[in-house]
Amino acid sequence: MAKAEEYPHSSYRSYVLKSKEDIVYRDVILEMISKDRKDTPKKYRDFVQKAIGERLENPLANVYGGALLGGKTFIKEALNKLKDGILQREEISNRKRLQAAYESDDVIEALSDYFNVSPDDVSKNSSESRNIAIYLMKKFTGMTNRQIGELFGDLSYSAVAKGLQRLSTKLRKDRSLRKRVEEITSNLS
Predict the structure, then answer these.
(1) Which domains does the chain have, with CATH numbers?
(2) What is the pTM of this model?
């Protein structure tokens, strides 16, 4: 096909030509493009033409929790709307991930800021920041021990579990450590 409007199995013609097809409801899409209805067909055509022949990123690559697609702000707003009961149901797939309050990057960034080190330094072997990062990721991200272990240089899931257990014990006994973790947690939000 030489032109997009010649492709027989496309809604493209309905958006750029004056003829309407009964099966295509185009108003919602056209309103997203421009409030001025005279501009929309041209803007839509330009949008499509720009993408022809380009290698496009998979739009589903960044789906959050198997269900939400959008920026961080949109995802947080959507999750806040869902938290009232629906996420408690067992039949909801990716429930644990959707209930997570933060991403691993958020935790690393908060620790990096708190300890005034680079994000890479947070994950250095046996550093206090790494142990706290593992603890906070387990608590707030919904990640499994295996996923956390992979993030920190291929630690086994059992090493992550033992580290979590040691830090939890230390938190109960060490008031200054508990205070640091609380300060970091408050920096997350």
Answers:
(1) 8-51 (no CATH), 57-99 (no CATH), 104-188 (1.10.1750.10)
(2) 0.52
